[in-house]
Amino acid sequence: MNYQDLEDLELLAKIGEQDREALATLYERYGRRVFALAVRMLNDPVGSEEVTQDVFMSVWRRGATYTSKKGKFTTWLFSIVHNRTIDELRKRRRDRSRDKDDINDHLNIQSGDVSPADAAVAQSEYAKIRAAMENLPEEQKQVVELSYFKGLTQTEIATKTGQPLGTVKTRMRLALKKLRTALSAEMGAQV
To answer: Which of 6, 50, 57, 63 could form a disulfide with 15 if both were Cys (CB 3.0 to 4.6 A apart)?
Structure first.
């Protein structure tokens, strides 16, 4: 059987049967993009490798629980990446203040631990996301940056910005809808 020819959902079904080759195929298919998102958010290649491993271990353990009712497989996968990376950011924030961190600090990956191919993927995908974010109203862009790049919860964003929680939630929902529309055209099936 050629696992490369199987669709994502077929691979997930095989993962539910404890098929390691199916997991390896999903890792081969999405590992670089998972790592690119993690390194973009953490700005730490070593920590991003750990997040990537954790994400695929989570797919191994929870892959059988995925249903298409939860949305596209890639949406489900990258929500796991996002949540795991946010957990890591929050853990680090407890250890030290990241108030001086700025989204532009995430623009340059400078480490000998990151392969040129991984760095190129991360830079390319980040540039597309950044360009799409530039078209957002400033209030929406701010909540996305605070959530996705600084790891703040919506309640923490409301406190930090002095805005009501409902306003923060609405801005986040509108911003993500606009970004999804812009990026689906730009990145196609990759999103």
So the answer is: 63
Identify the pLDDT of residue 176. Answer: 85
CA distances from 107 to 148, 173, 183, 185, 189 (A): 14, 25, 18, 23, 24
Which helix (H) or strand (E) segment holds residue 116: the answer is helix 116-134
Q: How far is CA 169 from the centre of its chain?
A: 19
Q: What is the biggest distance separating any 2 CA atoms in the chain, rounded to whole angstroms?
A: 57
Calpha distance 40→37 (Å, rounded): 5
Contact (Cβ atoms closer than 8 angstroms) between residue 136 and residue 176? no
Give the H or E element holding residue 111: none
Q: What angle do CA 104, 129, 6 make, to 5 degrees?
A: 130
Taking the C-alpha atoms of residue 141 and residue 138, their distance in angstroms, rounded to an integer, is 5
pLDDT score recorded for residue 25: 95
Q: Reduced to 3 DSSP states, what percent helix, strand and coil does the chain have, rounded to the nearest 5?
A: 80, 0, 20
Q: Is the pTM of this model over 0.70?
A: no
Tokens of 107: 């623009």
- Please write the tens of the pLDDT for every residue from 144-182: 888 877 778 888 899 999 989 899 899 988 988 888 888
For residue 150, give the 3-state DSSP assignment.
coil
